[in-house]
Amino acid sequence: MANSERSSSSSPPIDPRSGFCKSNSTFYSKRPFSLPANPSLDVTTFISSQPHCGTTAFIDAATGHRLSFSDLWIAVDRVADCLHHEIGLRRGDVVLVLSSNSIYIPVVCHSVLSLGAVLTTANTLNTAGEISKQIADSNPTLAFTTRQLATKLPARISVVLTDEDEERVDPTLGVRVVGSLKEMMKKEPSGQRVRERVNKEDTAMMLYSSGTTGPSKGVISSHGNLTAYVARFISVNLNRDEIYLCTVPMFHTYGLLAFAMATVALGSTVVILRRFDLHEMMASVEKYKATILALAPPVLVAMVNDADLIKAKYDLSSLRTVRCGGAPLSKEATVMFLEKYPTVNIFQGYALTESNGGGASIDSVEESQRYGTAGLLSSGLEARIVDPDTGRIMGVKQTGELWLRGPSLTKGYFKNEKATKETINSEGWLKTGDVCYIDDDGFLFIVDRLKELIKYKGYQVPPAELEILLLNHPEILDAAVIPFPDKEAGQYPMAYVVRKPKSNVSEKQLIDFISKQVAPYKKIRKVAFIDSIPKTSSGKTLRKDLINLAPSKL
């Protein structure tokens, strides 16, 4: 709810310190927020209409190649024209992007969205089998990808290649190549501007979020949801002269929404690393005078561990802020980082794919001194803390499951009404699955997770997916997968396995068995053999019992 709405005489009284309203047991964001005056705007039109004085939109960290804001919008217009008139892309069609980070992902993103088509992305580390499952669910009309990654796609899909070089297409590629992004960006528009009208309720994106009890789900976001995210980003990032260094993957919600969309509206420059490398990142900070880094906690820990070498080799004097998200950051890691890099501030944040960047964040030096918190509620959000057992709505400094409501939150899951109803109730509250409390000053603290996702270096790993693969092994009777704490990665998957009688299958054999079937970040890295998997009377695995048992099995 926007501040302007809450100021009316009919609004309930809200504690200005905590943001809590006793009359409806709801917390309200303390940050100012307003939605665009024209509610019918699609997100691309909203972004392109924002006034700014920025010149350079994107820089390729490896080559130094730059894309200005004017060239960006010319490219968007040309590519959209080709997609519409030559390939026949229409409103509602799904377009897949399978690509490592690139300064051209924003071109593809805005071209697709401007036509009312739906953008979906896939993790470049996923196997061909994992990508095929996502394609079977989302049914994309077209895919943007590189020659190397095209080999992971099924032969039936039409492909536009995004490689920057002019090599002739390999006829053995195995997919139907219908165009080249580079050629599309050179073509003059046809002048035929008649396109279907796009409005805020239309689906804009469908990003896949891992689940704990089954396959990943397509999270549906409307143009209105994304516009709310961009408006929020503008409201909290008042300095438009920042130079961001994007190290996070742009197939992920944060990388895509923040660095392909919101920074464009802000008029800031984004330096894009094609793939993460710690020393390439540091060299890019020095070369391009980056002021803000976006990191997952394991990268921040790596910066601490190699601090002496990094500071001796690179000039980081331009760097002012590190924004950290994707997984909780410990107080110890924060303190150690500030000791090593005393002139750099750490701003933490909390969000979900389903919330489109909404959740909580730290946005000032003063707020960052409150260690252990994810920050204040994002602008425009309402929150409730709910007892997961009784459903009772809790108050200040009381612990329960965090529920969120606001304009950026997802419409639901693609073709999955059951999961949508389980996650979003009839009043529009999104059940996050995170156990939290909000203190007297409105700061959100994350205590635990109701969900059982494993967070490996910021990537989500669903235990159920690995358990199904383990149970397909001929020598396994039962199995369960849990998160195991790790200083570098945050967590990694550990398996408890019940072998069949007379089986001598080893830990290494099972690790290799899983490694061949999943992306590298999903690999099981430790196996413990056990007589039986602890379960409830209804058959649900008691993962907490296994987590408590884990140290004794090392």
Automatic annotation (TrEMBL):
SUPFAM superfamilies in the cross-refs: Acetyl-CoA synthetase-like
Molecular-function GO term, any one: ATP binding
InterPro entries according to UniProt: AMP-bd_C (IPR025110), AMP-bd_C_sf (IPR045851), AMP-binding_CS (IPR020845), AMP-dep_synth/lig_dom (IPR000873), ANL_N_sf (IPR042099)
Chain ranges passing through the membrane: 254-273
UniProt cross-references to PROSITE patterns, sorted A to Z: AMP_BINDING
Pfam families associated with the record: AMP-binding, AMP-binding_C
UniProt KW keywords: ATP-binding, Ligase, Magnesium, Membrane, Nucleotide-binding, Transmembrane, Transmembrane helix
Keyword ATP-binding assigned: yes
Domain AMP-binding enzyme C-terminal: 465-540
Cofactor(s) for this UniProt protein: Mg(2+)
Family: Belongs to the ATP-dependent AMP-binding enzyme family.
Name recorded for this polypeptide: OPC-6:CoA ligase
Phylogenetic classification of the source organism: Eukaryota, Viridiplantae, Streptophyta, Embryophyta, Tracheophyta
